[in-house]
Transcriptional regulator, contains XRE-family HTH domain (Celeribacter halophilus), 127 residues
Amino acid sequence: MKHPVDVHVGKRIRHRRWMVGMTQQQLAEKVGIKFQQIQKYETGMNRVSASRLWDIAESLSVPVAFFFEGMEPSVSDHMVTQSEGGNVPADILADKEALELVRSYYAIPENQRRRLFELARVLSDAA
């Protein structure tokens, strides 16, 4: 049976890998393992050892703590309320469309990105 922490860590590995545009094969090569092992980590089927998590964190340019962010069960099982930031899923990184939007957003030059951000803020206030 999968442990919830292993599943959470695996999701965070997958999300970060996807955010940086890296394939499972590329991550596996950087870490020195087979891509099938990355698949098992990402689904929570296999537990990631501390040293392997360290290597993955370095390969994905994040601190190890990144993989444990958002572990509060009260947040992960519910929607974020309007007062906490809108009616969005608590695990927004689980939404592939949201991840693609974030990646696209950061690909925009900074001055245009700021203008887009302000537009989005105005449109969300109007809704």
Observations:
- The domain at 1-94 is CATH 1.10.260.40 (434 Repressor (Amino-terminal Domain)).
- The CA atoms of residues 80 and 88 lie 6 Å apart.
